[in-house]
Give the backbone structure.
Amino acid sequence: MTTQSANSDLYFSTARELRAKFDAREISSVEATRAMLDRISNLEPSLNSFITVTAERAIADAEMADQRLRGTGQEPTALTGIPIMVKDNFSTKDVETTAASNILKGYIPPYDGTAVSNLKEAGAVILGKGNLDEFAMGSSNETSAFGPVHNPWDTDRVPGGSSGGAGAAVAAGECFIAFGSDTGGSIRQPASLCGVVGMKPTYGLVSRFGLLAFGSSLDQIGPLTRSVADCADALNVVSSHDHRDSTSVAAPFNDFAKDIDGGVAGMNIGVPKEYLVDGIEPGVRAAFEKSLETLEGLGANISETSLPLTDHALAVYYIIAPSEASANLSRYDGVKYGLGSLDAKTSAQATEAARGEGFGDEVKRRIFLGTYALSAGYYDAYYKKAQQVRTLIRREFTDAFLKFDALVTPTSPGTAFKIGDKTDDPFQMYMNDICTIPVNIAGLPSISVPGGMSDGLPVGLQFIGPQFGDTTVIRAAAAYERATNWHQNHPLI
């Protein structure tokens, strides 16, 4: 399907295509930015992808980008003048940052996070802040204090979470690139359900400084785009070593697009049988099997493998992530910033009131789980044991990559479901991340690309690589993308 809009060529261009238009003087960044802002104004009543739109700032930044593109000032980059979105758990100087939570309404950070600083230095034009599940805790973008995001393919359905605003915005042509965070699949799952590209880089490759923490050992910033090439270009901009983030790696930051045309001929790709669980929808399974045929046709060596500890990954995640959330969210006390109480007589009362009113049900649920797992008498039985199993999962992946260059799986067990269908069943909601969570546990790079359609809804294909094998998964994903046309499908909106 393709949109019938007169401006569809612009709305659904890739960032590289837009940059070529800049270079050819066919359009300016200001003109592209105004078109995106008009698009946002028209679609937001139906989608709710944005929490904040910074129109005046965006136009001013676009004017500066145009000067840069004309040879005045700094050398332009691949993202100079490109209108983008950043998720609303990224710290943005002088722009409200809420993490989609009532407890942070009105919070104006005094600084930019490193990823935001890198984007600004590159000349990207930030249109605004994307909607998300509250504090990035969710798989459907239904837990936001600002209301759910709607999938542009069917506005009665979820876009995936937690970076649902980012996925919906890129799919709907509201921006060319969006940046989200991925703790257990929060970039890749919305990419899958919205029919776009989404990548979680190797843990530590992109600085987390300025990212409002959920699970510190799991969180990673990454891009959502309309092509794999755009994904590589975006990663080139945001990846950097940062002394302000103790987990930031001092890795060689090469061009992530350098091997993008290398293809998959001769590449050994494993298919972990544990990812094809009983809960995989028939349409997703059929699309996945067709994708394997495509990869074989491109010369890849496809063979089944086994990662038996995958079955424990969900349990490990839902001990470690809530435990880290319990610690991280303890900073929101209703005293220093964000929601407070004018009636409180003591700081303890202020904290109780702020957390009671400010945190939503899902956030409270995870805080309770994490606090319990960390409490005296239960730490060894739950948190310590989960960390031990996590080590075994990492080793299992390491062993697999002695035999395979990459692994391939479905991104999500199903397509986008109806809003409200799973809100009363947390376990069924958590199962949506079963194919993505192991990657975060092991700190590996992974990318989701459009891999088919099922009943008119997008299906995602996931490539997983070894630590710092980011160029490998980009290369494999790009080869698959060139051989198919799924990424060229756009919603009728």
